[in-house]
Design a protein that fits this description.
Helix 1 packs across helix 8, helix 3 runs parallel beside helix 4 and helix 4 packs parallel to helix 6. By secondary structure, the protein is α/β, with parallel strands linked by helices. The protein has eight helices and seven strands; from the N terminus they run βαβαβαβαβααβααβ. A seven-stranded parallel beta sheet has the order 3-2-1-4-5-6-7, sandwiched between helices.
Length: 257
């Protein structure tokens, strides 16, 4: 029998830890970088096309040693190179936040509008990309013996209401993939999903702020979700949910009710 940890772990201490964040140059990823750095983590800010944003964020974060990191979700070789760069320059990885994602607003009833190219791009970025990233970083995460992966998912995975059917499908796949990975990556790595509803960012192309406000008005809590609100949930998952793995947390102001 595997030797058992006797529990009573206390909060996860981020001092001296390294956090890698995909899609870290903007939105939820950037907000998570700020919160993790405030608690003492050194951040590798993953980016695809937002190199200048990643560099600026690395310079402004508290602490030192933060780096921009080319981490495109559609290029497995580049993802493996990023993992090697983190190992070489930072020596460890303790937290991985999969925040990179994409979508396109396509009415669900218009089946022809959701073409194959769009469907494939969404699935590759939102599902294969996080899987490839976890696969590439798993040896480094396991080495520390107490690591955590946080996948930024969506309420769309649960209710099937989102910017497109492909987006809903991709987030449902991400959640189920998280269950499978939690089973095989323990006990060294926890895997937790954080699932917001509409967030007041420019993530969905063409979605107006009024649309976000209308969604917020439908929730029991009547709060407009900001990127930092989701980042706080990421922090909670990393630092306090020490016995949680293989599940997703709704951060939706009760929109699912």
């Amino acid at each position: 029998m595997t030797e058992l940890n006797q529990g009573a772990l206390g909060p996860y201490n981020l001092q001296g830890k390294v956090a890698v964040i995909t899609g870290g140059s903007s939105g939820i990823g950037a907000a998570s970088a700020r919160r993790l750095a405030e608690l003492g983590a050194t951040i590798a800010i993953g980016y695809n096309s937002g190199r200048e944003r990643a560099e600026a964020l690395a310079a402004e974060l508290p602490g030192g040693g933060h780096i921009p990191l080319y981490l495109p979700m559609a290029d497995t070789a580049a993802i493996r190179a990023a993992a090697a760069e983190v190992e070489s320059r930072m020596g460890r990885a303790d937290v991985l936040v999969n925040s990179a994602g994409t979508t396109r607003a396509v009415p669900h009833a218009d089946l022809e509008a959701l073409d194959d190219e769009t469907f494939d791009r969404i699935l590759i970025t939102n599902v294969r990309g996080p899987y490839s990233t976890i696969r590439a970083f798993a040896p480094l995460l396991k080495r520390g013996g107490d690591a955590v992966v946080v996948n930024i998912s969506s309420l769309a995975a649960v209710n099937g209401l989102g910017s497109s059917i492909a987006y809903c499908a991709s987030k449902a796949a991400l959640d189920v993939m998280g269950v499978s990975l939690a089973r095989v990556l323990g006990p060294e790595i926890r895997v937790i999903g954080v699932s917001p509803a509409a967030v007041d960012t420019g993530f969905v192309p063409g979605r107006s702020r009024d649309a976000v406000l209308k969604q917020a008005a439908l929730t029991p809590l009547k709060i407009v979700c900001q990127a930092d609100d989701v980042a706080l949930a990421v922090i909670a998952a990393v630092t306090h949910l020490r016995l949680t793995t293989g599940t997703s947390l709704l951060v939706d102001c009760g929109r699912h009710l």
